[in-house]
Write a structure and sequence with these properties.
This protein has 311 residues and is mainly beta. It has strands at 27-31, 34-39, 50-54, 57-62, 65-69, 71-79, 85-93, 99-103, 135-136, 202-208, 213-222, 229-235, 245-248, 255-256, 265-266, 270-276, 282-290, 293-301.
Length: 311
């Protein structure tokens, strides 16, 4: 994200309350109606990478790294294989020269449902509509075949979908596009695997910013699972960091961290807040103190891992 901007609507301005919401995807206006963003899906843009689609058809890819979009528009409610969700799409030119829509899920930075930043304008219908289905991005529901005349329809569970499209015709809650509950061992949306469980939590704070240091006046974890472990670490020698602390969320899934930050944090300090539960991917919020600002980003911590990674 551009220097000086706040990476996430959970951050607080120096003189205002924090705007609690989703963080934008960091993009930069490079002129000529193009807004450059970073794309994290591995691929050379020829056989793989960030998906570029029109409707339910993949028409190309964007290579991993910097690529541009022209505008953004809302489409279907998509989820990534990692469990993130978003409905924002950018109109772009795939590496093979074909125009289409790329999902913010494949772009680096931002939180769930975050739009493209950097002043990216709305498409306002100029390029048609983005992919509109709900489900796993890149895996649109397979159209149900039309039965031949005289062939009785097969839909034993009466969910409106017949085999082989319906991977379990004995369960009316299992069909392509159905909500898939993470970590329950059931493939409700017929994607081929159960969605990995992932901890959901919000880290919100207020701060007073300065050129050499900033003071966290309020910081808390909310909307987390009850009894989740919250580990707070701070690095930066002689930067005003508190010692490492481990806390537990309440029955309502919240815990205040304000009392841990009695001192001002000097520029260069890095605060890491990890919210974890057993057998689930933990949510990590990293706060870096810079001149007159605190920059934040979200990371993921795999079960049993020590170092968080990009989600």
């Amino acid at each position: 994200m551009r220097a000086g901007l706040i990476a996430g609507a959970l951050l607080a301005l120096a003189v205002a309350e924090p705007a609690l919401g989703q963080a934008e995807v960091p993009c930069t206006n490079i002129g000529s109606g193009r807004y450059e963003c970073d794309w994290h899906r591995a691929g050379d843009g020829k056989t793989g990478g960030a998906i570029v689609a029109v409707g339910t058809t993949t028409v190309g890819y964007l290579h991993k790294g910097r690529n541009w979009i022209q505008c953004e528009e809302k489409g279907g409610d998509m989820r990534s294989p990692e469990g993130y969700r978003n409905h924002w799409f950018g109109w772009t030119l795939a590496d093979n020269g074909t125009w289409g829509w790329a999902s913010a899920l494949d772009a680096s930075g931002g939180d769930d449902y975050g739009s493209f930043g950097g002043g990216t304008p709305p498409c306002s219908g100029a390029h048609g509509t983005p992919p509109a289905y709900t489900g796993l991005w890149g895996s649109p529901p397979t159209p149900q075949p039309t039965p031949q005349p005289g062939t009785p329809a097969v839909d034993a569970d009466k969910d409106g979908v017949s085999p082989p499209t319906d991977c379990d015709d004995t369960n009316s809650r299992t069909y392509p596009g159905a909500p898939d509950f993470p970590g329950d061992g059931v493939d409700q949306d017929c994607s081929g695997a159960d969605v990995a469980g992932r901890v959901s939590a919000t880290v919100a704070f207020k701060a007073r910013y300065g050129a050499k240091s900033s003071k966290l006046t309020k910081i808390s974890v909310t909307e987390a699972p009850a009894g989740a472990t919250v580990t707070v670490t701070c690095s930066g020698r002689n930067k005003g960091c508190p010692r490492t602390q481990t806390l537990t969320t309440s029955a309502k899934g919240s815990v205040s961290l304000t009392r841990l930050f009695r001192k001002r944090l000097r520029v260069g300090a890095k605060v890491t807040i990890a919210v974890t539960t057993p057998n689930a991917v933990g949510k990590v919020r990293e706060l870096r103190v810079v001149r007159k600002d605190i920059r934040a980003r979200s990371l993921c911590l795999a079960p049993g891992a020590v170092t968080p990674q990009r989600c």
